[in-house]
Specification:
It is built from six helices and no strands. With 127 residues, it is mainly α.
Length: 127
């Protein structure tokens, strides 16, 4: 189970790091231009909202890996997973209200996977 949780943590960290870094580094116009079918929602929120969402994803991704690797405050791993799950639940609500079912489904899957990491790392497979 520990190996499964590590694989899940690395995959989630990679996904959140890429998605978050893109939101932090690119402008809203660049996001819409690069992926209009997936990032059209950014036209309806402020620049700050996009940057905060991206920052939360980047920090959560780092929190899934770094504390465990360094051995410094490994309790932050399940807390990061919980934070990412909350972020994805809020994103799912946002996309549901906009009628974006594909984005909602992805948010729900990522929330569930984050909750699995949280459960495992708070439980029997803690560091």
């Amino acid at each position: 189970m520990n190996v499964f949780l590590w694989i899940l943590q690395v995959l989630l960290a990679g996904m959140f790091l890429m998605a978050g870094a893109m939101k932090v580094m690119k402008s809203r116009a660049e996001l819409v231009e690069s992926q209009p079918e997936r990032m059209g929602w950014v036209e309806h929120v402020s620049d700050q909202t996009v940057k905060v969402a991206g920052g939360a994803e980047v920090l959560g991704a780092l929190g899934l890996i770094l504390p465990a690797i360094t051995g410094i405050a490994p309790v932050l791993v399940p807390l990061a997973a919980a934070g990412l799950a909350i972020t994805m639940i809020l994103a799912a609500v946002f996309h549901t209200r906009r009628g974006e079912s594909q984005a909602t489904a992805m948010n729900i899957v990522l929330a569930i996977l984050s909750l699995v990491v949280m459960w495992g790392r708070f439980g029997d497979y803690a560091f």
